[in-house]
Amino acid sequence: MLQLSIIIPTYCEAENLRVLIPRINAALSDASLKAEIIVVDDNSPDETIQVCEELAETFPLQLITRENERGLSTAVIAGLNAAAGEILLVMDADLSHPPEKIPELVSALNQPLTDFVIGSRYVEGGSTDQSWGWFRKWNSRVATWLSRPFTSARDPLAGFFAIKRQTYLKARNILNPIGYKIGLELIVKCRCQHVVEIPIEFTDRMAGTSKLSFKEQLHYLKHLKRLFDFKYQNYAYFVQFALIGLTGVFVNLQMLALLSIWLISPVAVALAIWTSMSTNFLLNRNITFSYAKHQPFWKQYLSYCGSCLTGAIFNWLTTMVLSRSFQFFEKRILLAAFIGILVGMGFNFLLCRYLVFSKHKPAEETTATE
Fold first, then answer.
1. How far apart are CA 21 and CA 261, in angstroms?
2. Is residue 352 predicted with pLDDT exceeding 90?
């Protein structure tokens, strides 16, 4: 089997590739590494394809052109799936990642316990380009901080990393990335426990324009939600369910205040409860249990209303039993009511998770090609 495969996702990177590929080849030659270079291009309208064809005459370069799909993460996965090397290394084409560091990443990954290696900006010896402004640095740090529930790595969002082929194959069929942060996806889905970071100097791109946009930042937040659901499963679903339940309290109170101006109290209370229950249903269907939003709307809605009624009954029963059967709660009715709320919410969550929004194919079980 080939020792190393280098995957480079591209879109309009013709100028940079003319410089990058010879530098990669020189680094490989100096380290006596046998490798293939796989460029995965999203049908660039510039000369990327022609440049790759020219470079392939001199260097071990293979070009994969995707005409019907776009996106860095899926491009990387396409390259990983086509690779033949024992070690799979990913890097950007914009010359921000120093190819001279490739041998160090490979050497670190060859250590027995290591299953993922990052070319890192944020460990001792690493750095970012001095031209970075405060906003760009702040944006990068916040995005890194948001990844802390998934890994202790200092720079898990880096696009310069290496992973063993056997580690990648364990999770190939459950990868479902969105946006640019494929490295974090691999760390989480491949369950990488021993991550090593090699310091690099991250420089700004030499030519072309950055593909990072506000839309990609929103994709990153959606990606974090997917990873949260995957890693923490029912805990993640319950946290989201509880937070949405909290928003329902505010919807209920606001609607009650508004409707009480025109309607008698019982009707206003009923409509306020129905409104908050409906908004909670919509939020849970599209956020918490989004994997099931393809199922019939009205069937889910009626089932959700039934689960809320069941939760309310358990809420009431718990409160009544505690307040009338235990002396401690007789003078602490609010505490009994609070426990009742928790019990009711627990039953409501279980019914929603396994009945209302059941019979699904979880996001983590879909493949990246779907």
1. 72
2. yes
**Do 352 and 287 meet the contact criterion of CB atoms below 8 Å apart?**
no
Q: Assign 3-state DSSP to the chain and report helix, strand, coil percentages, each to 5.
A: 55, 10, 30
Estimate the crossing angle of helix 182-189 against helix 72-82, to 10 degrees: 60
DSSP assigned state of 190: T
Q: Give tens-digit pLDDT for 320-342.
A: 888 888 888 888 888 888 888 88
At 232 the three-state DSSP class reads helix
Q: Is the pLDDT of residue 104 over 80?
A: yes
Tell me if 114 sits within 8 A of 151, measured CB to CB. Answer: no
Residue 226: which of 136, 287, 138 has the closest Cα? 287
Task: Indicate the pLDDT class of residue 366, thresholds 50, 70 and 90.
Answer: very low
DSSP 8-state assignment for residue 101: G
The pLDDT tens digits for 222-252 are: 888 889 888 888 888 999 999 998 898 888 8
Give the residue carrying structure tokens 């990954």.
109
Phi, psi angle pair for 247, to nearest 5°: -65, -30
CA 348 to chain centre: 27
What are the start-end ranges of the E strands in 27-173?
A: 35-41, 61-65, 85-90, 116-120, 127-128, 161-164
| 283 phi/psi in degrees, rounded to 5 | -65, -45
Sign of CA dihedral 63, 68, 74, 78: negative
Q: How far apart are CA 353 and CA 370, in angstroms?
A: 24
User: How far is Cα 186 from Cα 142, in angstroms, rounded to an integer?
Assistant: 20
Let me know: does 17 contact 52? Beta carbons within 8 Å: yes
